[in-house]
């Protein structure tokens, strides 16, 4: 049998070697293989990154290799001078790969205020598509007793 680290075919183009969490919850030596922008495989074996040829190898030493974090409460447009580009760039710098953007924008923001109409939601989707550096989930809100039609067609949704 060939050991995992001796395989010739790699499951991705980048590997991060460090300590990973195993199925029992212990931190063990391991590898996280990345293909494109997705995790392709996690291996529970330590290999010297210099021995891995034909791939980009990142040696995290004894550091923990973790997936990107999710920040579930972000206000990118609540105050003047803030924005989607700045908040998502900061998120990425801190290891956050997804933010959940709150629907209460400053009235001076490009979206025009609270995300409580279809037009404001679509405007914010467009802004996010142009400026975001990480994945963004958008929340909307409805005023009490409103009859707003917020149905967004599949065509209008971000991919």
Write up this protein.
It is a single chain. 15% of the residues lie in helices and 30% in strands. It is α/β, with parallel strands linked by helices. Helix 2 links the parallel strand 6 and strand 7. The strands form 2 sheets. Strands 3-2-1-4 form a 4-stranded mixed β-sheet, with no helix packed on it.
Low-confidence stretches: 1-7
The rough form would be described as elongated
Number of helices: 2
What fraction strand? 25-35%
- In what order do the strands lie side by side in the largest sheet? 3-2-1-4
Question: Secondary-structure map with pairings?
Answer:
Layout: E1 14-21, E2 27-35, E3 38-43, E4 56-64, E5 69-74, H1 84-93, E6 96-101, H2 118-131, E7 135-138
Parallel strand pairs: 1-4, 5-6, 6-7
Antiparallel strand pairs: 1-2, 2-3
Key features?
single chain; 159 residues; alpha/beta; disordered N terminus
Concise description?
The protein is built from two helices and seven strands. The chain has 159 residues and is an alpha/beta fold.
